[in-house]
Amino acid sequence: MIVLRLITVVFTLFVLLPLAWLVYAAFIPPEALINASLVTPGVSLENLAALPGSGLGRAMGVSLAATGMVVVLQLATGLGAAYATRAGLPLTALVLVLLAVPTELLLVPLYRLLQGLGLTDTFAALTLPFAASPLVVFLLMSAIRRVPWSLVEAARLDGAGEGTIVARVVAPTLRPELLATGVLAFAAHWNLVLYPRVMTTESLWTVQAFLVDLLRTRPFEWGLLGAAALVASLPILVLYVVFERRIVTVFERGFRAY
Amino acid sequence: MPTRRAQPLPRALVTGLLAFPALAAFGVFTFTPLAAVVRYAGWEWTGTSQPQPVGFANIAALARDADLWASLGVTIAFAAIVLPAFLGLSFAIAFALEGLQIERLIKAVLFAPGLVTVAGSAIAWFLLYDPNFGLVVDLTGLALPWTTQGWAALVYVALFTLWQQTGYGVLIASAALKGVPAGVKEAARLDGASEDQVRRWVVLPLLRPTATFLVVVGTVFALQSYTAVYLLTRGGPLGSTRVLGYYLYETAFERFNLGYASALTLFVLVVAFAVAATQARLLSDRRAAP
What is the number of structural domains in chain B? Predict the structure, then answer.
């Protein structure tokens, strides 16, 4: 047990180090870099002040818009599919197969498909192919088992249509799961790296594409890199801190059900 | 759902319509590309050129492509490092945390790297672990020579992957641990088993299905390691970290050989499905297990 505890302490420190560094690097005073010694203590806001005009703002805008839209689409399509499955449509096997397909490895045929549709280098290229996600459908399928079906039956007796039931009965009951699944979907799309690089050019660069380019063109401006990395991570960090408990619970429950 | 056959048609139709957007998206953006890639594999095509049919030339070239087999070897080596570590760490940490006050806090911390902006993480790692200028070498003089040594680069990418993903494993292992009935442990204790013996001989065997599941999850992470490779090492030095997914990307979008890359996609898909089929068997064994 002592060994296990020791492993846990060491690994937790190993996980914390880059996270702490991510925060601190944003505030490294420029003198520290001139002295070529990173241990110079001190805090400086100069790095953050250098960010406007770097193009980060624009990239964050693209990422927030695209990822936000994808999350809404995935939750809507996923809830519909999950409801249909619970109501008797046999989709489970299909979803499990889709989970096994490494979608990002379909880069080449997707590129050709989007090219044919005239969609490469458009906002639609970043969003449309992600309108539905097997993982979201899967998590919502396990979540919807929690909804007492008598609620749905009662609404049907009251004459409510299926669409109304999903929107007015099922969705409100599943609010915590929708939120948590939404955050996971947000992280998954936000963190795509190769896909946006291939499908779009500089005017539609996402945060990831921007950071990759920054690291390549200005590898020695550590303060700027740190500041950009921190600011780019803020949206997910904020979402995570606010919804941490729900995310963890839904994630655990979703995979236990399987 | 025994009532479904008794339902009148219109409702079944409406229900089907609710699933339609998801099914349409999967059809257009997953199944169509899956089918099309077979056709593209018979092309000579740079992405902007007019495709020229070359028959089975690309497929035949796969067998003679030394880089491809080297890349498969790298992928297997990578999985061989990551999988055992992922499994061991997930269980070790889940056991160590069980019932502690700070359990929730630690789990939240371990889960966080999977959600942090991945290119930002790569930057943090670069500033920390660069073997010439990084903070770690600056403070301790110790460095992992990942920019020059192949083995070190592979370990570096593996460590990054473990850093990102172990939180998921801990959550899953810990959820399974909480599912072990208290009565079973109590009975073993009454029979005179020590705490270590209870863990080793009673709890651990009950967690076998979870271990199987973690192997499945870990394999998926290993197959998806191309993002980490792209961000950290670009496949180098000298191809030592060029995992299959990255080789595919490089062939298509840095060497602009999209026809051959389609043949590579087929190869990777065959590997992925073979792995998935093995996993499906493991998982169904798991269901049959007590």
Answer: 2
Quick check: A32 contacting B, CB < 8 Å? no
C-alpha radius of gyration, chain B, whole number: 24
Are B1 and A229 a contacting pair at CB < 8 A? no
Helix (H/G/I), strand (E/B), else coil: B53: strand
Q: Which residue has the tokens 């500033």?
A: B127
Same domain, B35 and B115: no
Which of the two residues, B244 and A253, has the higher pLDDT score?
B244
pLDDT, tens digit (0-9, with 9 covering 90-100), for B252-266: 888 898 899 999 999
Arithmetic mean of pLDDT, A165-184: 88
Per-residue DSSP letter, B200? I
Q: What is the pLDDT of residue B101?
A: 84
Distance CA A247, CA B111 (A): 10
A117 touches chain B (CB under 8 A): no
Residues of A in contact with B273 (CB under 8 A): 100
B175 & B241 share domain: yes
Same domain as B236, residue B122: yes
Confidence of residue A258 (pLDDT cuts 50, 70, 90): very low
Q: How near does any CA of chain A get to the CA of B65, in Å?
A: 19
Tokens of B138: 């600056």
Domain A54-257 indexed as CATH 1.10.3720.10: yes
Rank B36-45, B125-134, B194-203 by mean pLDDT and report only the highest: B36-45
Distance in angstroms (rounded) separating the CA atoms of residues B156 and B122: 11
The arithmetic mean of pLDDT across residues A57-79, rounded, is 94
Query: In Å, how far is A58's CA from the nearest CA of chain B?
Result: 16
**Owner of token pair 């651990």:** B204
Which parts of A26-55 fold into alpha helices (H)?
A: 30-34, 46-49
Q: Which residues in A105-120 are b (16+ Cβ under 10 Å) and which e?
A: bbbbbbbbbbeeeebb
pLDDT higher at A10 or A45: A10
Non-local CB neighbours of B55 within 8 Å, separated by 6+ positions = B42
Name the pTM for this structure: 0.87
Q: Which pLDDT belongs to residue B6?
A: 52
Q: Are strands B43-44 and B52-53 parallel, antiparallel or unpaired?
A: antiparallel
CATH, residue B111: 1.10.3720.10
How far apart CA B248 and CA B74 sit, in angstroms, is 13
B25 plus B113 within the same structural domain: no
CA dihedral B239, B241, B245, B246 (to 10 degrees): -60
- The pLDDT assigned to B285 comes to 65
Q: Which residues have CB under 8 Å from B64's CB, separation 6+? A: none
Question: Is B52 within the bounds of a domain?
Answer: no
Q: Is B163 inside a domain boundary?
A: yes
Examine residue B244 and state whether it is found in any structural domain, yes or no: yes
Contact A22 B120 (CB under 8 A): yes
Confidence at residue A33, expressed as pLDDT on a 0 to 100 scale: 63
Residues in chain A, overall count: 258
